[in-house]
Write a sequence for this structure.
């Protein structure tokens, strides 16, 4: 079990921008030299490996805008916009499915957004039916089938329907229950409507319920966030994500509606985080890593204890590396040794699909060095431990020579108490509790591409 320690002085010292490593290389490295024929070649390779499949569906619509939002979404009150989108999505499902071996089992499925429940109950049913028609879904509830829920856009009936459709995990957007914060970010959401969804999810047999919160929003301070967390803990979620507010108004226009003077200072943000960690730990939650907490009995905690935790675009997962097919506008896929991404605008998406073309517009084929570094970063992020021999056996390298300069760079971190490098016997790096919150900084040492892309990422904490 992880016990997290926080040293504000050290965090300030290491404070810099960095990626969240939901992929390596990160999306900054995706490029348009990667073509459809590269993508198809990787699919052929993946069919030979015959790994399980993961399907991600992006439903981009939201009814109202939350000013802080950094997600890929389209804000509209016009519900009829979902119809042509879904028609194109169905066609994309058909085109993608034709390339993959139909026997491959879908062990993971995720609807993300935007707001997936923006679409009507009939459309939800239809989307799942079309998916079932083209892919080999699991019907015994053993898959990780999850959905992002905005409690303002769902009620008891929606939840019962989603359960019937096969979903067994959900994450709920809350962010903060404080009225001043909610007003400042244009997201008014009562505890009652949130609770109604959670009760319905429990009653209908969802396996795991997660709540998303954000720290660093306007008007937040230690007291307000403590109060929000008390209310959230009373709702008894199985997991919690506490995201650091990424304020990048140059990139996300709507964030310009947030009064920057009302955003807590870096010092207050760290105090909020420190208090949140204490409060959650006192309430019995375990720190999984990278903003995620879970009950000790939750499968994420159990997987971490058993050293079979994985990381993917949705965060942490208990399922081994699947090939991921990203469906819908902006979606990212990971197939064999490549990442690929769909076009980002609706017009492009519709045009390509109308011309019977897959909407993939960029990607990256991983080199042997990328694959090796990805495994190193994954091990560190999921287990706070890296065994050199494990990597040597898998990739045929001598760890201490291949990563000589990286190991030298880690010495400062070792002196600061973040980690212990053991060069004896099989060789290892063990991250210390004080280094858990700085895991991104530690992984950044192994990231070959970071030199010119740092400014594109948000602050680590
Ligand atoms: C696609 S949204 C969640 C689903 C749903 N649309 C909702 O809002 O309830 C995923 C999560 O990303 C987080 N998020 C969005 N923008 C963020 C930002 N700028 N910084 C940090 N976290 C952010 C929020 O916690 C949000 O719940
Ligand atoms: S946080 Fe969720 S509901 Fe709000 S704008 Fe972003 S995607 Fe839409």
């Amino acid at each position: 079990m992880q016990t997290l320690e926080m040293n504000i002085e050290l965090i300030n010292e290491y404070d810099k921008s960095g990626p969240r490593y939901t992929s390596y290389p990160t999306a900054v490295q995706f490029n348009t030299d990667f073509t459809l024929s590269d993508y198809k070649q990787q699919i052929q390779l993946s069919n030979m490996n015959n790994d399980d499949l993961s399907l991600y569906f992006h439903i981009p619509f939201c009814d109202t805008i939350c000013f802080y939002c950094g997600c890929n979404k389209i804000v509209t009150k016009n519900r009829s916009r979902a119809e042509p989108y879904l028609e194109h999505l169905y066609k994309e499902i058909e085109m993608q499915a034709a390339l993959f071996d139909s026997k491959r089992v879908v062990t993971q499925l995720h609807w993300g957004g935007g707001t997936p429940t923006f679409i009507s109950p009939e459309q939800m049913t239809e989307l799942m039916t079309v998916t079932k028609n083209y892919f080999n879904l699991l019907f015994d509830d053993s898959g990780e089938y999850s959905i992002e829920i905005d409690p303002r856009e769902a009620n008891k009936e929606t939840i019962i329907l989603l359960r019937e459709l096969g979903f067994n995990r959900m994450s709920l957007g809350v962010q903060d229950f404080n009225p001043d914060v909610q007003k400042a970010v244009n997201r008014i959401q009562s505890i009652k409507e949130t609770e109604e969804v959670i009760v319905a999810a429990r009653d209908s047999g969802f396996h795991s319920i997660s709540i998303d919160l954000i720290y660093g929003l306007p008007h937040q301070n230690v007291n307000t966030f403590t109060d929000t967390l008390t209310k959230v803990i009373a709702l008894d979620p199985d997991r919690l994500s506490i995201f650091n507010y990424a304020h990048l108004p140059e990139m996300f226009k709507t964030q310009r509606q947030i009064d920057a003077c009302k955003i807590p200072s870096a010092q207050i943000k760290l105090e909020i985080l420190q208090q949140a960690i204490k409060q959650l730990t006192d309430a019995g939650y375990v720190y999984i890593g990278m903003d995620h907490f879970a009950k000790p009995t939750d499968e994420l905690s159990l997987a971490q204890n058993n050293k079979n935790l994985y990381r993917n675009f949705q965060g942490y997962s208990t399922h081994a590396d699947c090939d991921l097919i990203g469906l819908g506008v902006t979606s990212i896929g990971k197939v064999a040794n490549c990442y690929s991404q769909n076009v980002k605008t609706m017009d492009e998406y519709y045009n390509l699909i109308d011309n019977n073309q897959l909407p993939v517009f960029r990607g990256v084929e991983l080199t042997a060095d990328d694959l090796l570094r990805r495994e190193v970063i994954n091990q560190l992020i999921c287990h706070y431990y890296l065994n050199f021999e494990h990597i040597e056996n898998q990739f045929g390298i001598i760890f201490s020579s291949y990563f000589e300069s990286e190991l030298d760079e880690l010495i400062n971190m070792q002196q600061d108490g973040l980690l212990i490098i053991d060069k004896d016997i099989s060789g290892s790096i063990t991250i210390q509790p004080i280094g858990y919150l700085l895991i991104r900084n530690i992984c950044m040492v192994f990231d070959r591409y970071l030199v010119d892309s740092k400014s594109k990422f948000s602050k680590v904490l």
